[in-house]
Amino acid sequence: MEEKVVAVIMVGGPTKGTRFRPLSFNTPKPLFPLAGQAMVHHPISACKRIPNLAQIFLVGFYEEREFALYVSSISNELKVPVRYLREDKPHGSAGGLYYYRDIIMEDSPSYIFLLNCDVCCSFPLPDMLEAHKGYGGMGTMLVIKVSAESANQFGELVADPTTKELLHYTEKPETFVSDLINCGVYVFTPDIFTAIQDVSTHREGRANLRRISSFEALQSATRTLPTDFVRLDQDILSPLAGKKQLYTYETMDFWEQIKTPGMSLKCSGLYLSQFRINSAHLLASGDGTKNATVVGNVYVHPSAKVHPTAKIGPNVSLSANVRVGAGVRLISCIVLDDVEIKENAVVIHGIVGWKSSIGKWSRVQADGDYNAKLGITILGEEVTVEDEVVVINSIVLPNKILNVSVQEEIIL
């Protein structure tokens, strides 16, 4: 009998994601388009490549109506059941999994993938599953080597170079531990549910103990956490490291975390270059005769209209009903639904919000430092940049009209 697999993708909720404003005001961050597809679409389509996949669950605490349309369309498109499970409150990365354990185990899967939605990588899930079966442990996590300077922003870990066993795990350490970090992609056997339950039971036991003793000072670290809030990293990975239960699978490919609009623009480019390898039909082409000149990797929605004299790319993504006028130049940008870019305008290193309009001979540009707050220029929803106006390294909140040039400003 074939062993079934299910996948769970953590999508978070509206209490987080303030760093993603103003792009997350009206669109949940997981549905923000990267390379023309919703952010969550990339891990979902990667899950589709796992053999014997029974279903995919999205777990988060956004309102169900925000995901209803997307979930039904992606289920039809990929011919695999995708369900959105709404948490009543945040339960932590492991607690959310445990909260829906009965639904997740409906198909009696032998393996459960757990992915974070705000991770951008090539998701080598079938290879990871094979490695996991070979290790014979409870869980295998995707890891990658990063620079020693940036490692402390993530969960750092030490693994046995031969057996790949996870020997030590620490979340965002104060001192350097290792240049190997956790990518936020895992595969587990159903034993993970017992491990999560053990954490809750242990915490309940300590809470009861605390009521009759003076351990307050010792317990202060866990006192604030409810028994049903379980974090995967601190509560599961750290305690189980070195116990022959957890293993690592190293990716040699790209990996980024999508916390800010700047990183979303960088990751859109990474996904576009991945399309070149496995979905070349999604990329636009044109040499300036009948179609616009296309340079490098570019996605153009079928409903977008681009003037043949425009030049676009590299790393450009045009969403539905975008209108690009004559002589326009677009480089490294995401242009969202229903935007109009008029003749001879230029957009470089920017994100242009829904229903916005950029006037003739205007420039919307930035330095392209994806990590800096004003490293890319962002126009919120329904922003109008009038003719011959220059907007540099700025963030413009929704429903603004710019009739004078601005530089390095946040326009509220």
From TrEMBL:
Descriptive protein name: Mannose-1-phosphate guanyltransferase alpha
SUPFAM superfamilies, alphabetized: Nucleotide-diphospho-sugar transferases, Trimeric LpxA-like enzymes
Source organism (scientific name): Prunus mume (Japanese apricot)
Family the entry assigns: Belongs to the transferase hexapeptide repeat family.
Pfam families: GMPPB_C (PF25087), NTP_transferase (PF00483)
Domain Mannose-1-phosphate guanyltransferase C-terminal residue range list: 294-411
Domain Nucleotidyl transferase: 7-207
InterPro entries given in the database record: GMPPB_C (IPR056729), Mannose-1P_guanyltransferase (IPR050486), NTP_transferase_dom (IPR005835), Nucleotide-diphossugar_trans (IPR029044), Trimer_LpxA-like_sf (IPR011004)
